[in-house]
Automatic annotation (TrEMBL):
<feature type="transmembrane region" description="Helical">
    <location>
        <begin position="71"/>
        <end position="88"/>
    </location>
</feature>
<keyword id="KW-1133">Transmembrane helix</keyword>
<dbReference type="InterPro" id="IPR003339">
    <property type="entry name" value="ABC/ECF_trnsptr_transmembrane"/>
</dbReference>
<protein>
    <submittedName>
        <fullName>CbiQ family ECF transporter T component</fullName>
    </submittedName>
</protein>
<feature type="transmembrane region" description="Helical">
    <location>
        <begin position="28"/>
        <end position="59"/>
    </location>
</feature>
<dbReference type="Pfam" id="PF02361">
    <property type="entry name" value="CbiQ"/>
</dbReference>
<keyword id="KW-0472">Membrane</keyword>
<keyword id="KW-0812">Transmembrane</keyword>
Amino acid sequence: MRGHGSLFGTYVAGESLLHRTPLWVKGLAVLLLSTSVLVVNTLALTVVAGGLVVVGYLMGARLAPIHLWRPLVPVWPMLVILGGYQLIANGPEPALQVVGNIATCLLAARLLTLTTEGQRLLDGLVALAVPFRRVGADPERFGLTLALMTRSLPYLVGSVADVRDAAKARGLERNPRALVIPVVIGAVAYAHQTGEALAARGLGEPGA
């Protein structure tokens, strides 16, 4: 089933400079770059930031060019609509800025996931939650929640796609029941299996 993916994206194994760079350095770089292009909001900075991201893909991470455009495929209709609106309302430069800023931020975040294993990302996010232990937060449960989310959401999205394809093959793509009922049943079964797996490990229970 196509749902068995990762919410963080597919990690590409490698020994490049970016693969070896500590997670906190890469995360800080993505944060600073994204914040800069959105706050300063000039076309010159957008071009420079976009160029740095492209260099990061091709030289820093030694990734194939296909990884540059693949993250933009799902969002290209939104980029076209936003760019078209800005072009009509404000002219070509603001249109390029808006589209360029979004694409740069998206590609920068994607580069982080492509060069960092999913478990390392989860561990890094859990580490960020440790200081909040003083106010009652539980970093371990936070990590468990993230792990479940990163596995469950892609599974459910893939389940919807599989059910839609199956219904289309039977000529039932316009039948709501043929789409909704199998997805609901599959989601309930998946949740039940996950609950049983957690219970078998003594997790997910009060006080665990």
